[in-house]
Structure to design on (539 residues):
């Protein structure tokens, strides 16, 4: 190796999430490892990622759709419900696993320098691997009841998937880094996970919230997950409705023109905040773990 | 003997302080804040005091000292796992640590999967691992067990595979921490031969070990640390002799 012109560098400094892109081979291996290890020794294996959301769906459908009668007021309530549930599950799984990822990988972080962002990002990918089969079930169910989406709606689905992944990464970086110092972070995230299902119109309709909140409805709309769920309803649920089932207030006004851009901006802000906090806190990960 | 070229590692006035935190919950931290920050929430401990050190490319340096003298801390600062609280650390070229080999192993994966995972963790590309895979397996003497899950390995097999991956990563600077006690004697001899081979290839070696006879055969230069300060830096046999004298005096 003659003529090494490499500069002297400061060890243990990186470029945050950009390094993750440079290390995508390692990222791929970490994701594959997680998926392999998750269901090791279980008979059903990856099938569990279908069974769990299905049971969850049935509980909500029976309790809310049938017992509380939401099914009567909302045509195709099952589709409405499921499209929200899969999205919220993707988000909550990303967030709670990313939060634990740094502490769970402490053996590695204490001994070898790696771009630490790899661990939260890998968990979000693992969640995506569990989310995609559920999406297939959703699409299948939609097709059965005559789903005919426009190209714009399909593009919106992809955009929302990316947005929720970014949101999960941003919050995961933040809470994952804080978790090293204060393990309370995990409990805060457990609480967020509990709230998210109910703070978005997954089980009920957005118009019910508007009736109660009135002029303050915009606060509800600031939650990026709320917008994400509403866009999913617009893309999956609305196209399955027949002309006589069509409700005139299926989506909140300005969903695509105002709220979607706002949600995207908030998501980006969360990502930058998460990355900033992560970089500041990650300097001392090895000695705090 | 290789001609020593550029500087590979420079540490300038490196200081590292550890905070021995007693509290791990927000509640305790809040109570402490509310009470007007009375008392010390944490205790401090200085692991390294203004350590300055320069290692040239191709040098083989043994870092010696008794337990708690700051050897491993210095190694972690050079590898980038820890960041100094004062002073600077700079390195040239790729630095890889044979620090506690096997840290990246996952028990439920096969030996093959672990070779790829650990190789990537140590900074190898997919192509490099593909190329060196056979050589890694051969050196480790794992043979047919490469497709068995690592949890069924004996501790010797485990360490041999981990060491084998680490020596195949081919960095410019090797950091070696207490891993020369790998496996049985024949394998140990093989490891030492491999390490000598690396140093003949002009790699920079930075070794931490308590096995003084061993480091004296592998390294040329010795650095003695005591309570976080460099007390001696010179020819390895002289430094070994000095350390022995000091330990006897204790």
């Amino acid at each position: 190796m003659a003529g090494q012109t490499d500069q002297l560098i400061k060890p243990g400094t990186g470029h945050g999430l950009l390094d993750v892109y440079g290390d995508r081979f390692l990222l791929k291996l970490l994701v594959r490892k997680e998926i392999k290890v998750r269901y090791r020794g279980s008979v059903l294996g990856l099938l569990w990622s279908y069974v769990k959301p299905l049971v969850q769906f049935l509980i909500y459908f029976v309790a809310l759709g049938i017992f509380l009668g939401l099914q009567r007021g909302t045509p195709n309530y099952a589709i409405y419900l499921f499209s929200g549930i899969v999205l919220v599950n993707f988000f909550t799984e990303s967030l709670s696993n990313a939060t634990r990822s740094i502490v769970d990988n402490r053996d590695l972080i204490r001994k070898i320098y790696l771009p630490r962002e790899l661990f939260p990002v890998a968990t979000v990918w693992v969640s995506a691997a569990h989310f995609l089969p559920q999406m297939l079930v959703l699409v299948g169910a939609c097709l059965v009841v005559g789903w005919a989406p426009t190209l714009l709606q399909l593009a919106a689905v992809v955009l929302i998937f990316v947005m929720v992944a970014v949101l999960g990464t941003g919050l995961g970086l933040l809470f994952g880094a804080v978790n090293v110092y204060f393990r309370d972070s995990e409990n805060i995230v457990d609480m967020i996970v509990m709230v998210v299902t109910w703070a978005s119109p997954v089980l009920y309709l957005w118009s019910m919230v508007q009736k109660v909140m009135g002029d303050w409805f915009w606060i509800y709309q600031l939650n990026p997950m709320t917008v994400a769920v509403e866009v999913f309803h617009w893309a999956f649920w609305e196209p399955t409705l027949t002309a006589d089932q069509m409700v005139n207030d299926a989506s909140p006004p300005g969903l695509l023109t105002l709220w979607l851009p706002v949600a995207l901006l908030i998501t980006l802000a969360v990502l930058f905040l998460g990355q900033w906090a992560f970089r500041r806190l990650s300097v001392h990960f090895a000695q705090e773990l | 003997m290789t001609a020593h070229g550029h500087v590979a590692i420079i540490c300038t006035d490196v200081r590292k302080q550890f905070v021995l935190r007693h509290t791990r919950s927000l509640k305790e931290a809040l109570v402490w804040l509310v009470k007007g920050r009375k008392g010390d929430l944490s205790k401090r401990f200085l692991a390294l005091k203004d350590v300055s050190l320069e290692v040239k490319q191709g040098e083989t340096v043994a870092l010696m000292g008794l337990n708690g003298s700051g050897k491993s801390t210095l190694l972690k600062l050079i590898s980038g796992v820890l960041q100094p609280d004062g002073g600077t650390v700079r390195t040239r070229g790729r630095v890889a640590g044979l620090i506690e080999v096997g840290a990246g192993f996952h028990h439920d994966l096969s030996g093959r999967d672990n070779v790829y995972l650990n190789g990537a963790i140590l900074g190898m590309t997919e192509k490099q691992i593909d190329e060196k895979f056979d050589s890694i397996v051969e050196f480790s003497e794992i043979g047919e067990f490469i497709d068995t899950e690592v949890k069924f390995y004996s501790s010797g097999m485990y360490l041999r595979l981990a060491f084998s991956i680490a020596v195949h990563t081919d960095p410019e600077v090797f950091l070696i921490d207490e891993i020369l006690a790998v496996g049985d004697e024949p394998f140990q001899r093989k490891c030492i031969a491999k390490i000598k081979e690396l140093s003949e290839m002009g790699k920079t070696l930075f070794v931490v070990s308590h096995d003084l006879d061993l480091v004296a055969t592998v390294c040329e230069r010795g650095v003695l640390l005591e309570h976080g300060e460099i007390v001696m830096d010179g020819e390895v046999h002289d430094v070994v002799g000095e350390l022995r004298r000091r330990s006897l005096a204790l």
Summary: Residues 45-288 of chain A form one domain. The mean pLDDT of chain A is 88. Chain A touches chain B through 35 residues (CB under 8 Å). The beta strands of chain A are 8-9.
